[in-house]
Design brief:
The structure is a single chain. The chain is α/β, with parallel strands linked by helices. The protein has two domains: 224 residues, Malonyl-Coenzyme A Acyl Carrier Protein, domain 2 (3-Layer(aba) Sandwich); 69 residues, Malonyl-CoA ACP transacylase, ACP-binding (Alpha-Beta Plaits). The chain is built from 14 helices and nine strands. Helix 2 crosses helix 7 and helix 6 packs antiparallel against helix 7.
């Protein structure tokens, strides 16, 4: 059985995430404590105790998810066989790259902290949001985005092609309002606004993209030790320059998650393991590849916590 490891992005965070691994594993504690030292504030306390409103702010959510995913990865590595691929959903791509050795933990943490800060600033300057379309085809989602953009004069685009029947759109608030009114006309059964204050994977992130390019240019990247299937390409890239460009493009282009899962399946992957909080990606695998085995390490955390309590 060939396995791929998947790392979640924003939307998987919750107060208390990572606490069981922190208590159970000295390796996880090292990663969390290093993160607090690098960032200069108690990120782990925010993850474990909240407040939830602060944890849900983009500039905190992104480093928090990165750290908890990598702490989980480190704690569970001895339990896992080696993956043939790794992949991450949006922000989770940075966790996947760190796990694959493309950059070290501290460099990755600084990258995601700056990415979160720049995206939050772009959201302040150009307010936007996201919505999930349930039961919608990709064609219906595109038709709705085109109609809402025309009606509002503001951008609305497909942000995430997650799995069959689940597409996420992103853009300006006026365009999202227009889409709400037009949804049924374009074959969308249900549209649900998401609790985010920015518009990732849309043109509203161009300001963040330009600034993030300077940050990425200063970070030393290495060829990954394990192939990383990237959001912008739905296939692996191998050179540092290709990775750098894919990470930049990801800010304004859609997350091709369904395509990424399908591509890994064509390469013989039949086992997907989600590394990080919750099991959102596990559900996407089950809907995209119903014959594949999909599981989340989150379910193992309480069992591990009963082991080493040191």
């Amino acid at each position: 059985m060939s396995a791929a490891f998947l790392f979640p992005g924003q939307g998987s965070q919750y107060v208390g995430m990572g606490l069981a691994w922190y208590r159970a594993s000295s390796e996880a504690r090292i990663f969390c404590d290093r993160a607090d030292a690098v960032l200069g504030y108690a990120l782990t306390e925010l993850c474990f105790s909240g407040p939830e409103a602060q944890l849900n702010q983009t500039e905190y959510t992104q480093p928090a998810l990165f750290v908890i995913a990598l702490a989980t990865w480190q704690a569970a590595r001895t339990m896992l066989s080696s993956p043939v691929f790794v992949a991450g959903h949006s922000l989770g791509e940075f966790s996947a790259l760190a796990a694959a050795g493309a950059f070290d933990f501290e460099a990755g943490l600084r990258l995601v902290a700056e990415r979160g800060r720049l995206m939050a600033r772009a959201g302040d300057n150009a307010p936007g949001g996201m919505a999930v379309l349930l039961g919608a085809t990709l064609a219906a989602a595109q038709s709705l985005c085109d109609a809402a953009t025309a009606a509002s004069g503001q951008p609305l685009v497909i942000a995430n092609d997650n799995c069959p029947g689940q597409v996420v759109i992103s853009g300006a608030l006026a365009a999202l309002d227009a889409a709400t009114m037009l949804a049924t006309e374009h074959g969308v059964r249900r549209m649900q606004r998401l609790a985010v204050s920015v518009a990732p994977h849309s043109s509203l992130m161009r300001e963040a993209q330009a600034a993030f390019a300077e940050t990425l240019a200063a970070v030393q990247l290495r060829a990954p030790e394990v192939p990383v299937v990237l959001n912008a390409t739905a296939a692996p890239v191998s050179t540092p320059d290709e990775i750098r460009q894919a990470l930049l493009r990801q800010l304004t282009l859609p997350v091709r998650w369904r395509e990424s899962l399908l591509w890994m399946a064509t390469q013989g992957v039949d086992h997907f393991i989600e590394v990080g909080p919750k099991d959102v990606l596990t559900g996407m695998v089950q809907r995209t590849l119903p014959d594949a085995r999909a599981e989340a390490l989150e379910a193992l955390a309480p069992c591990v916590a009963l082991g080493d309590a040191g």
